[in-house]
């Protein structure tokens, strides 16, 4: 299994502060996907987002 970590706020401090993406890039016999987590950097840990937090899958694309 290969998991990549991406923090958008590392490159643009105004964008998605306190969030990180765990990207499952390779998974033998399993799905690959991107999981958004909460970045609690003052504690050096990542946790699940709140239950009512809108994920990328829940966003509606404008046409």
From TrEMBL:
<protein>
    <submittedName>
        <fullName>Unannotated protein</fullName>
    </submittedName>
</protein>
<dbReference type="GO" id="GO:0006260">
    <property type="term" value="P:DNA replication"/>
</dbReference>
<feature type="domain" description="SF4 helicase">
    <location>
        <begin position="1"/>
        <end position="48"/>
    </location>
</feature>
<dbReference type="GO" id="GO:0003678">
    <property type="term" value="F:DNA helicase activity"/>
</dbReference>
<dbReference type="InterPro" id="IPR027417">
    <property type="entry name" value="P-loop_NTPase"/>
</dbReference>
<dbReference type="GO" id="GO:0005524">
    <property type="term" value="F:ATP binding"/>
</dbReference>
<dbReference type="InterPro" id="IPR007694">
    <property type="entry name" value="DNA_helicase_DnaB-like_C"/>
</dbReference>
<dbReference type="Pfam" id="PF03796">
    <property type="entry name" value="DnaB_C"/>
</dbReference>
